[in-house]
Structures are given as C-alpha cells and as structure tokens.
Amino acid sequence: MKPEYAIIIKNKTRLEALIERFNTKAQARFYIESSGGDFQEYVIEHEKFYQSFLEVQTKLSKVIKNKVVEREFIPSFIFSEKNLIVVVGQDGLVANVAKYSKNIPIVAINPDQERYDGVLLPFNTKNFLDGIHSVINENFSSKRMKFAEAVLNDGQKLLAVNDLFIGVSSHSSARYKVVMNGKEEMHSSSGIIVSTKTGSTGWLSSIFNMAYGILGSKELEYPELNEDDLYFTVREPFKSKATQTEICSGRIKRGNRLVIESLMPNNGFIFSDGIEQDFLQFNSGATVEIKLSDEEAVLVI
Predict the structure, then answer these.
(1) Where is average pLDDT lowest: 6-10, 48-52, 72-76?
(2) What's residue 265's pLDDT?
(3) Nearest to residue 124, comparing CAs of 56, 47, 43?
C-alpha cells in the first residue's frame, strides 16, 4: 500500500540523557569535567545530530506528512500499513524499531558518518530522499531482516533483530536446563546470548573478542552465519557436580530450536536488542523455545 504518512524515529542524544539525569546542562558539564571527561565531545555530538535531524525533517516535509516518535515509545506505538518508517540514529535504533515494524518499509539514515558504523544505515542526509521516493512509488529494493523468536510455554512471544538474552536480571547466576538436538544439560551461567546474522557483529562478536583476549590467540574464527542461522553462546558457564558445560555454543538452523527450562524462582527474564523494559519473565515453571521466526523486517536499500 502506498504510504501516506512518515513516522520519524529518533533517540535522545547522550547530552540530552545527561541533562535529564542532572537537571541542567551546567550541572551535567560540572559532573563530566570534574571526573576528567571532555564535555565538549557530548556537545559536538549533540549538535551534529540535530543538524542532520533538522535537514532530514525539512526535506521530508516537502515530500510527505510526518511526525516524530521517540525511541522509548516504540514498544507501545501502533504502526499503520499506510506508514513509512524513517529512522535517524545509530544501528541499534534500527534494530529496536524493526521488531515492531510489521513489514512496513524502513528508511534508515546515518546522521553522523564519522561516529556511527552504519551497518544498518544505508542512507545519509544527502541521499535518503531516493529511498523515500522509491517507497512512495512502490518500486524499492530491500533487505529482509530475519528475527530470532522466543516463545514461552504460555504463548508469550518476543522477537529480536540482533540478539536475545536469556538469564537473570541481576549479577547472580542463571539456573536452567537446556536442550539441543536431543541432548540436555543443567546449567549455571551468566545467561545465554542468541544472535541473528544481523546481530553477529555486535554482542556475539564481543564474546569472541573476550575469548581471544583470554586465550591470547588469533587462530579462532568468528562463526559465519547464513541468513537462516541463529547462533547461541553461554556466558561464563560454571562446571560443578550439578552443572555441565558441554552445550555452550552452536547453530540453530531453520526448523531446529533451542529449548530452555527456567530453574530460577525469581528474577529470570528474557529481553531483546538491548531494550530491558520490553521483556518476558522467565521464572521456575517457564519453558522457552528459541528459533528463527517466520516474521521479517523490511530495510530499504
């Protein structure tokens, strides 16, 4: 369906978050500088973002009606099939938005190419209207972003563009039973990360970086994932008389699933893509199946 309205999505800058925390810019400056930090870096980053954001808003308003929605409201925002989603921010913001997008095309814009990698940001402030016009004319190219999916035994479901975390919402150990390809183990660990191909350059890569650093070896290789692969890894598994460490990582191919049964009386939870406010409780009695979802997000390229 031809879009009639664009939803521009942004996140607070680091400077805005500091001012929100300390009430005024002056107090935020005092805190950063008294700690030896460079407050001007926050200011420059903020000004660059809003320079780009204003440029996007001004150009977009000449093409299609639009309104701005902050990241924090996305989990409860209801998109319409008549919408076009425009994301202005970092790669993580695209991931945050994608799982709520309901197959609505996403035009993702990198507002600061010197600071942001832009793996999920195909456009910049100069060329993004090409993507907008292609969607309006219903003649656009796209990348289909696959989701990881967590489904509880009571039917609740959570999607992830980058990764799922299954564990405990504190620094205590997560206790659970894990089942993979007919083999099962009892675990005590810091939780499980499940990554998509899209997210494999993020949290998952940091776990491998840690392993490389500990072993002092560069011979290990990052897992190369296909679009239909998920990859899971157990963080800091503890081996004891009651817990095992054989099922610590592996691929979850389409049609397969990782099954986890919670053994935590409280504080067990599952969240995705860094949004801890949008979570599933995962306490004793709960079982979750992790698999590749049939749902996808549409990233305009």
Answers:
(1) 72-76
(2) 94
(3) 56
Exposure letters 140-169 (e unless 16+ CB within 10 A, then b): bebeebbbbbbbbeeeeebbbbbbbbbbbb
Three-state secondary structure string covering the chain: CCCCEEEEEECCCHHHHHHHHHCCHHHHHHHHHHCCCCHHHHHHHHHHHHHHHHHHHHHHHCCCEEEEEEHHHHHHCCCCCCEEEEEECCHHHHHHHHCCCCCCCEEEECCCCCCCCCCCCCECCCCHHHHHHHHHCCCCCEEEEEEEEEEECCCCEEEECCEEEEEECCCCCEEEEEEECCEEEEEEECCEEEECCHHHHCHHHHHHHHHHHHHCCCCCCCCCCCCCEEEEEECCCCCCCCCCCCCCEEEEECCCCEEEEECCCCCEEEEECCEEEEEEECCCCCEEEEEEEEEEEEEEC
Q: Give 120-177 pLDDT, tens digit per residue.
A: 899 999 999 999 999 999 999 998 888 999 999 999 999 998 899 999 988 889 999 9
Reading the block at residue 270, the tokens are 């599952």
Measured between alpha carbons, how far is residue 254 from residues 19, 107, 146, 291 in Å? 45, 28, 11, 7
Could you tell me which of 278, 285, 243, 283 has the C-alpha nearest to residue 266? 283
The residue type found at 30 is: F
**Residue 237 burial (CB count, 10 A):** 21
Sole residue written with tokens 């999607």: 159
Find residue 166's DSSP bridge partners.
192, 270
pTM of the model: 0.80
Q: How far apart are CA 196 and CA 299, in angstroms?
A: 15
Best CA proximity match to 282, nearest among 192, 202, 163, 161: 192
